[in-house]
Amino acid sequence: MSGTPSLMESLFQRTLDDLIKGLRLHTPTTTPSLSAFISKSLTEIRRELTSTTASTKSTALLKLLYLHSLHSISASFATFHVIELSSSPASKPLAYLAASLLFDSTTDVLLLLTNQLRKDLNSTITREVSLALNALSVIANQDLARDLTGDLFVLLNSSKVFLRKKAILCLIRVFDKYPDSVRVCFKRLVENLESRDEGVVSAVVGVFCEMAKVDPRAYLPLAPEFFRVLVESRNNWILIKVLKIFARLVPLEGRLGKKVVEPICEHLRRTGAKSLVFECVRTIFGCLSEYDVAVNVAMEKVREFLMDDDPNLRYLGLQALSTVAPKHLWAIQENKEFVIRALSDADVNIRFEALTLLMAMVCEDNVVEICRVLVTYALKSDPEFCNEILGSILSVCSKNYYEVVVDFDWYISLLGDMSRIVHCQKGEEIEDQLIDIGMRVRDVRSTLVRVSRQLLIDPALLGNPFVHRILCAAAWVSGEYVEFSKNPIELIEALLQPRTSLLPPLIRAVYIQSAFKVLAFCLHCFLFRKDVTFSFLLGSLSEEITTGSSDRLRNAPSGDSDGDGSYYPRSTLEETEYDIAGNGEAAGSSHVHTPLASSKSTKSTGDSIRHILNIVETTLGPLSGSNDVEILERVRNILGLVMMIKQEFLGTSSQEGDDNQGNNNNASKIINLMHEAFSEELGPVSISAQEKVPIPDGVVLKQDLEDLDLIYGDIKLPLSSSFSLVKRHSLENDSILTLENYRKDESETEGKPTALSEHRKRHGLYYLPLERKETSDDYPPANDPTVQDNINADTENLAKLTEQSLVFKKKANTKPRPVVVKLDDGDSRSILPKKQEPKDDLVSDAVRDVLRGNEAEPSSSSTAKEPDRASSKRGKEKALVDGSGDPLRIESSRSRDKSSRSKHHRQNKEKKDGSPETGKAKSSSRHGTRRSKNRAEGSANIAVQSPVIPDFLL
Amino acid sequence: MIRAVIVMNDQGKPRLIKFYQYQTVEKQHELIRSIYGVLCSRAENVSNFIKVDSIFGPDARLVYKTYATLYFVFVFDSSENELAMLDLMQVFVETLDKCFSNVCELDIVFNFNKVHAILDEIILGGQVLETSSSEVVKAVAELSKLERTSSSVMLIPSIPGWHGR
């Protein structure tokens, strides 16, 4: 049947029904498949479209339209056939339907439709006019709008209400595309507002509602008309639209509010239609909220909504509440119970709305309570909503530098609790806040460290990928503020526990770096502050021993997939030594009771240090062959330190039972230096800091580490086989290599190996400590341009410099609420309120002109016609005096106005495609004034107009 | 204004697509797919509103309603009232019901252009045109009269279902 002879085409053409049946029979899996069927049908359609018979053609077009609309088949090849068919009365409906579905304002054949449209608009057959209007309302572009304005103008007075309505609604598109048509049609449009037919009024009000969206100010002079409709009409559709218009006008003109509030309340009390009730409520809450009587009436209705069984009404009720919330907080508080109950509504919308409302209520006094309630709800709800809750808690509490949080201890614990919620996927936010608070709020650091500890020591958390980011922050916090830690040894164990192998490498690197800091801290205490301060280390060690931490330790390496713990003979040896010393119950307890007994305590601090060193060595040793450079670097650093310490201190102390505090050797210097570096406080960094850093010469920021990946890709050896190599390497070279590395790293000179610093730039997050310091010495500090020095200065100086550069961020704690450090220039990207864009566009300008014209010379605008204008371009213009015209406008007219038109006409033509850039280009035509006027002038003009309004109203 | 009227079945197959601001068909279908993704995840007896800012940009609202196997969806902006849109949807469905006497999905499938014609009498260029279903029925009846009278002039009317597949 595909080979139907052309003669029989019309007889045996498939109809749309046939096509649809075919489409329903074929699926993508049948043979022939759906797509094959469609392409076959398309071939048929293409052939049929060229037929000379109108009916064949229109059937083909109908089929094509169906395929186009519902099966997204391109139909661009058929646009000309649409034009052809539009002239035949029988296929006219189809042709216009096709036009409205296929054409957009750039379709090239659109102009060919102009004459047909005009013919139909002037037709005596109602249906033809109606069809043309239907199409025009969707496809009108600038040219069509310009050419058909006159015909529309006639229709605005049509005796057939049916057509008049359509013509009025068509105006929206026509005005938008060709603003000058406003001058022609506006008066008649306004006149229709007084029509006795509700449909017509409804259409007019709809047009104004749409137009007032762009620049309501232009329509203020019409307020009396709208007011009349508001008072007189009883049609809900009309009233809703009028209310929408007033909602836009009232904020511009305060006196209007006083005028309309009473009628609106009247409607609110009277009507039974929920839609109108809701619109009244919305208007009152939106722009009449200072009228208490009105708000009370509206609240009554809202309460009814909230109690209703219909979820739609409950939802809208909550929505209304959230609009009024900023001004009348009591409104929510009164309905608090309902709002909280809505948190567990079956409907997601309602839950979300309730959540928003609840968060709007949050203030210093109730934040604790609300968050408690919310977290309980989060525990009960589905993952999506749970995260929504957590997200809004996080964002509300952190708003404006934790404005609402007074008790930071509570907030930190809350963050800790949130991390443990099973569905919690807000790791990133919590991570940011933990670090941020740590840097900003000094007083809370001990709590922060305590909460971090709880997170770190829980091996279960390591299995949840969503928590990893939080753990990263916890690890960083513990390392950075280790001086607040009650038990550094436990911390090291936690940071190096076997399950950390579950972490992604970058976070693991943070773990290792933190362990490094803790270790440096312990060593420093051991070497330099062996008095009272160190006793806690001692005590904690004893506790550790009794709680069997050494078991954990011994299990650690074997649990780690990377190693078996026995490859490193010296460590096991010492571990045994340590165990012998440490497991003595009596010795342990005596330490606890007499921490100040110097001889014993020094001995046992030596033990505890050795204990730590052993942990580090056994767990990290296997990682020194890690494929991840981040981990590798840190492991090397820390192992190097361990080696050095062992050689220089413990090697002798274990034999002599005495300790080498007098040794003025290299190691103690380094430890001291390192401690200074680490105890340097990190401050928050302005978000714009990066932008202030000049890019040093020779740094290629775009360059990435792909080369490294390639290299590593080649040597992905099983870890066990690389062991011997690693071992040899670490044994032979560690002491030298890592020491060097270490010195580089810690003295913060950071010799800038390009690949690594690149990486550091790209993954700055994981480099918090170093990165920050780097910026403070390598580059001019973001917030303190005065501190600037060469990076070659010796390390001591640098440390001091860093201190200075950061010192301004520290503030004394004076208030009961802990100080939250804020930067002068704001850390968050300041969102400058954009300068009020000149919003009024050509349409509004035209409207203003017309309205002013109405005042001045009410009749002229409706009568004056351009005699020399072709009928299509006939327009009624006020006797415009705009002789001058601004260059911009003339130019824009010229560029688009290809046909040769009279100069006068050109002046009055405002180009606008509804595109934003032309909308912004301010060009308006006002009597005898310069065209390029700005907002200020516009508003000044309104100020002149506005006093007129009350007179109208009264 | 009303931005779009969409009818689709519970499988996500579109049955009627009308956008009042031009969108390419590809975009239309993409939008419909995202709407369907949201719609089919909704439980029964919940509110008829969906937040669609992510799909249609800010200021967009969506109401939908299920009638038998069909979702009726209206997308509109802040110039329309949500509850009024639900009423309008009811008008549309009532009109369909009157025009096809007990409308079902198949009626809408096979009367592609007629459904469009009906919709055009209710909404014009994104604005509410007529809210009384009987008025709409009258207007549509007149339109089909026009079509019939003129098609009777044609020599060979096409006979649906006459030819095999």
Automatic annotation (TrEMBL), chain A:
It comes from the Eukaryota. Residues 38-497 form the Clathrin/coatomer adaptor adaptin-like N-terminal domain. SUPFAM superfamilies: ARM repeat. It is found in: Endomembrane system; Golgi apparatus. Residues 549-569, 583-604, 744-763, 771-790, 820-954 are annotated as: Disordered. The keyword Membrane applies. One of its GO terms (cellular component) is Golgi apparatus. Keywords: Golgi apparatus, Membrane, Protein transport, Repeat, Transport. Residues 822-855, 888-900 have a biased composition (Basic and acidic residues). GO terms for biological process: Golgi to vacuole transport; protein targeting to vacuole. Residues 923-933 have a biased composition (Basic residues). Adaptor protein complex 3 (AP-3) is a heterotetramer. Belongs to the adaptor complexes large subunit family. Part of the AP-3 complex, an adaptor-related complex which seems to be clathrin-associated. The complex is associated with the Golgi region as well as more peripheral structures. It facilitates the budding of vesicles from the Golgi membrane and may be directly involved in trafficking to the vacuole. It also function in maintaining the identity of lytic vacuoles and in regulating the transition between storage and lytic vacuoles. This is AP-3 complex subunit delta. It comes from Lithospermum erythrorhizon.
Automatic annotation (TrEMBL), chain B:
Gene3D superfamilies: 3.30.450.60. One of its GO terms (biological process) is Golgi to vacuole transport. Belongs to the adaptor complexes small subunit family. It is a peripheral membrane protein. It holds the Pfam family Clat_adaptor_s. Keywords: Capsid protein, Cytoplasmic vesicle, Golgi apparatus, Membrane, Protein transport, Transport, Virion. This is AP complex subunit sigma. It comes from Lithospermum erythrorhizon.
